[in-house]
Design brief:
The protein has 191 residues and is of the alpha+beta class. It is built from two helices and eight strands; from the N terminus they run H-H-E-E-E-E-E-E-E-E. It has one domain (13-169). The strands form two sheets. Strands 1-2-3-4-5 form a five-stranded antiparallel beta sheet, covered by helices on one side. Strands 6-7-8 form a three-stranded antiparallel beta sheet, covered by helices on one side. The longest helix is centred in the first third of the chain and has 55 residues, at 13-67.
Length: 191
């Protein structure tokens, strides 16, 4: 029994190298899985944050529009910006605009008549800058602003597109025209 304990037998070099190779393969596979899981979580968090920012911005824009009496004097909303007379705001005028290039635009808000990318940014990752569509008031309807927010953190993957679309009535606008006036012809709203 003692001779057995004194024996110098053990693992050979080939056995040790085999074990190291197997462990390397297993650990490499686990590391790949962990990296993919971490990247998926990061992507999901970025998309969630972009969607949350879009909902918050649309809510803020909706509140501004509900207070607005209409477009600022002499300025009509375009596809990329809108300037509103808002009596309940400091200064009485609020501007919203998009700025960016390619498929990465931002949505900005400013108290005043000018709006640019140096103002407060509400949304990143808009895929287009043309997000506004304005319907002026007439006898049968108050003024309405259509907003189409298309948000995508990875514009190359169209499957990840998140779209918020709303037609917001300017409740303080006034109907214009006389009874019997026909509905103004305008192109269909984007959403």
């Amino acid at each position: 029994m003692i001779s057995r304990l004194r024996g110098e037998g053990g693992y050979s070099l080939i056995e040790m190298l085999t074990v190291i190779a197997i462990l390397g393969i297993v650990i490499g596979g686990l590391a790949t899985l962990l990296e993919q899981g971490s990247n998926a979580e990061l992507d999901m968090n970025n998309r969630f944050q972009a969607q949350l920012n879009a909902r918050v911005a649309l809510d803020k824009l909706r509140r501004d529009l509900h207070c607005a009496s209409g477009p600022h004097t002499g300025v009509t909303p375009t596809a990329t910006s809108v300037t509103l007379d808002v009596p309940c705001a400091a200064g009485g005028v609020i501007s919203w605009c998009t700025s960016g290039s390619a498929s990465n635009y931002g949505l900005y808000r400013n108290l005043g008549t000018t709006c640019s990318s140096s103002n407060a940014k509400f949304i990143r990752y808009l895929t287009t800058g043309n997000i506004f569509w304005y319907d002026p008031q007439w006898t049968g309807s108050l003024a309405k602003l259509h907003v189409d927010l298309k948000v995508n953190v990875r514009p190359t993957k169209t499957v990840d597109l998140y779209e918020l679309c709303d037609g917001i009535v300017l409740r303080n606008s006034q109907r214009v025209g006389s009874q019997g006036t026909t509905i103004p012809s305008s192109p269909a709203a984007p959403c």
